[in-house]
Write a structure and sequence with these properties.
Length: 540
């Protein structure tokens, strides 16, 4: 009764303003209202009631179920019976839907709710998500201060919005790279690399895109006027979810300028030896080697094969409190809170080799070398691994065998190589099938015959389909497959005594590595993690 009174009172007061003869109603409502006190809950209820009434009136206007000449009367009834009539109208709606489709009513409601929230967002009532992102240069100055010189003109703010949107969408889409380049004299394209595969997300006219490129160059501390000479830079994006770093490279190309932006946003603490795709056996081997006080673990693989991720996963499994960890990187990709990280800078004459020499004077237990590129670094790192240091390093090569050949090419003696190295890990990244849309694979008769012959259970093999969640790619996220070469006494003796010739190493080693990777890939295929097509795409 109290609730009804609080609803009717303002309505009656409103009506009395319109018709002077309504004083009787006012006095009744006044009497009721005197016993009422104001509370925010009541106000909220009132607003909800009014809203529902208006909504119901709109429904009455649209529904064919109420004859036109009765609509006035129905509106009046609706005004007082708002929520009740809403329920009736909803029931009518449900009744009108064919029985077979009634199961999807819940989905219909959630879709309606999503539509409403999206229309609110696009109407600008709530700021779009990308407006919460802040782009900062290395000194912490915000983009609009650098690019717009502190003054926001309309043109500038449109450019800055576009830039923020590109960065935001890349982060949300888990892109590892953003490529902006001219397709023709008048059109530029924006592409994202997601799970290792490039896809075009936007086309822009050259003038707008050049402004976006300039804004990114400005925040990356690059020279805007220089459009031909290659330049490097970096910037940071801050948002509620955390901070992401970006490395930018520009170069003049045909029809304009190309910008490559590498996203370094992964949370490094997420990588551990148990979540990077290693089998239990492989993980045990690596953990065992890492726990030893000395020796070298060498990671290899082509560009973008996830070597650095594995390196950080290994570092994360090391106890920073009992072991002094120093890294030399080019550049520092992720910050490790408890390790000393040194960044190589050839311009300032800080090279891998020089940094390594100075590190050795700081009594490290674990040394991490970002990449072995030259003879001096290779030799110092291998010597350090024999003198009571655990050395983790990466080298650019396609297989475990070619990593050894590369070290020998760098004039490392077979004796130094065999006594220093503990293991070589070669790896490739494969895309994971999207869990929301993967479906049982359609296998050909010859594939089934092959699986039967090899006694492989193919019941769980899945294939990519594509859905909204994975942006129609059929894949979401990646995992790695590994080939691990452990240096046992036999291998050491073979290499040290030169009984394993380079030709033999190249031939047999490459074959062994490839078949091992294929075996690991097949394991991931039969457990439905990735597809047959993906393994052949990656391994060829
Ligand atoms: Zn999907």
């Amino acid at each position: 009764m109290q609730i009804l009174a609080v609803i009717r009172w303002p309505m009656a007061a409103h009506l009395s303003g319109l018709c002077p003869g309504f004083d009787g109603a006012v006095s009744v409502c006044h009497a009721l209202a005197v016993s009422l006190t104001f509370s925010p809950l009541k106000l909220l209820f009132l607003i909800a009631w009014v809203y529902l009434c208006l909504y119901c009136i709109q429904r009455v206007e649209l529904t064919p179920l109420v004859p036109k000449n009765r609509k006035g009367l129905t509106n009046l009834a609706t005004l007082f019976l708002g929520p009740v009539s809403l329920a009736v109208l909803l029931l009518i709606d449900i009744w009108k839907i064919p029985a077979a489709e009634r199961g999807s009513i819940l989905r219909m409601f959630t879709e309606r709710l999503q539509n409403i929230s999206e229309s609110i967002k696009s109407s600008g009532l709530v700021g779009s998500k990308h407006s919460t992102i802040k782009l900062l240069d290395s000194s912490g100055t915000e983009l609009w201060e650098i690019y717009g010189h502190g003054k926001k003109t309309r043109q500038d703010s449109h450019t800055l919005d576009l830039t923020k949107e590109i960065i935001w969408d890349a982060l949300e889409g888990r892109a590892s790279d953003i490529l902006i380049d001219p397709r023709s004299e008048s059109i530029y394209t924006v592409r994202y690399r997601i799970d290792g595969v490039l896809r075009e997300v936007q086309q822009m006219d050259a003038t707008t895109c050049q402004a976006v490129i300039n804004s990114i160059k400005a925040v990356s501390s690059m020279d805007i006027s220089e459009r031909r000479r290659p330049q490097d830079g970096a910037f940071v994006a801050k948002m509620a979810e955390g901070t992401a770093s970006f490395r930018v490279a520009s170069a003049g190309v045909l029809n304009g300028e190309k910008l490559s932006i590498r996203v370094l946003n992964q949370n490094v603490s997420e990588f551990t030896l148990s979540n990077i795709g290693l089998t239990e056996k492989q993980r045990n081997i690596i953990e065992n080697t890492i726990s030893k006080p000395s020796g070298m673990i060498l990671m290899c693989g082509p560009t973008g094969s996830g070597k650095t991720t594995t390196l950080y996963a290994m570092l994360n499994s090391i106890d920073f409190y009992t072991r002094n960890v120093i890294t030399v990187e080019d550049p520092i990709e992720y910050v490790l809170p408890n390790a000393s990280q040194i960044e190589v800078n050839p311009r300032a004459d800080i090279t891998f080799a020089k940094s390594l020499r100075s590190i050795l004077r700081q009594d490290p237990d674990v040394i991490c070398v970002g990449e072995i590129r030259d003879e001096e670094t290779a030799k110092i790192a291998l010597q350090a691994s024999q003198t009571g240091h655990l050395v983790l390093a990466t080298i650019h090569s396609n297989s475990t065998a070619s990593a050894l050949i590369r070290l020998l090419d760098l004039d490392v003696t077979p004796l130094l190589l065999s006594s220093g190295l503990s293991m070589v890990v070669s790896q490739r990244l494969v895309r994971r099938l999207c869990n929301y849309c993967k479906a049982p694979a359609q296998l050909s008769q010859s594939q089934i015959r092959d699986f039967l012959k090899r006694k492989i259970n193919y019941a769980n093999i899945k294939q990519a389909i594509g859905c909204d969640y994975c942006l129609e790619a059929g894949y979401y996220g990646r995992t790695a497959i590994y080939d691990i070469l452990v240096f046992d006494d036999d291998l050491r003796a073979n290499i040290a005594n030169n009984t394993l010739s380079i030709t033999r190493l190249r031939k047999e080693g490459d074959q062994r590595g490839k078949s091992n990777l294929q075996k690991q890939g097949l394991l991931k295929v039969v457990s439905g993690i990735t597809s047959i097509e993906e393994i052949s795409r990656v391994l060829g």
